[in-house]
Amino acid sequence: MTPPTKVLVTGVYGLIPGAVYRQLQSQPEAYDVYGLARRRQASERAPRDAVLAIPQEKFFLADLADESAVEKAVSGMDVVVQMAADPRPDASWQNLLSSNIIGAYNVLDAAVRCGVSRVVFASSIMVSWGYQLDEPYKALAEGRFDDLAKMEVHTVTHEWPNRPTGLYPATKVWGEAVARYCADVHGLSVICLRIGWVNAEDHPHKPESAAVWCSQRDVVQLVERSIRAPEDVKFDIFYGVSNNKHRWVDIDHAREVVGYIPQDSAEEALVRS
């Protein structure tokens, strides 16, 4: 009998990592799941009723900037789901440096040194945000859907140049680059997920947000499929959005490589509201 895959979820009290933890924890025959966070407290973005029952022996209280603490948590894991980060668009450089630069490096470096099989690295759709400065993507961002009839919309793929419009997405570009280095030079399998807009209400709220929205169950599915990706996937990048009518980023690549099939769409969610 194959033993459960040992998985460490960093930033576990956040919105997305918390949802991932609950999904993996519900399958004890498949996953032996651990959590890491700077504090035992739900983030402001997490649903108020989202309760995580993490046994003390499976929780690491650590700051990712602490290299030795990170190595202790990563040691013995099969997979690390690296989601801890400062996601605020207005975060200061010092905060981003500690969480998103030093922290991300410490996790990837520890994964290499500890013989981890794979890291699933949370990037962001915002590494491509700059495309929305130009038409037709600007029309999508502004909800001018009638104007699209006069324009040709090319789907942005992971092979297109990065276009971050702030320091936060720039740190994610850097994280993807370090992930590629770890994959090419050290043989660590890394899958980077450019996650769209996920919120506690699990709803796109307005048509202008529909193109980049991702439901909680869809992002959790993508993370789990990335954990279970074939061993020969050494490095890849997938966009994480739901099956939205006006999405402008590619999800076919994730479907082809790991079988990602989103169950939700922003349009259906808006109709139900």
What is the CATH superfamily label? NAD(P)-binding Rossmann-like Domain
Q: Main β-sheet: number of strands, strand sense, barrel status? A: 7 strands, parallel
Average pLDDT taken over every residue:
95
Helix fraction, binned, reads 25-40%
The assigned structural class equals alpha/beta
Which architecture would the CATH scheme give at its second level?
3-Layer(aba) Sandwich
At the first level of CATH, the class is: Alpha Beta
- Provide the low-confidence segments as ranges: none
- Fraction in beta strands: 5-15%
User: Order of strands across the biggest sheet?
Assistant: 3-2-1-4-5-6-7
Rg for CA atoms: 18 Å
- How far apart the termini lie comes to 46 Å
Categorize the overall geometry.
Answer: globular
DSSP summary: helix tally:
8
* CATH topology type: Rossmann fold
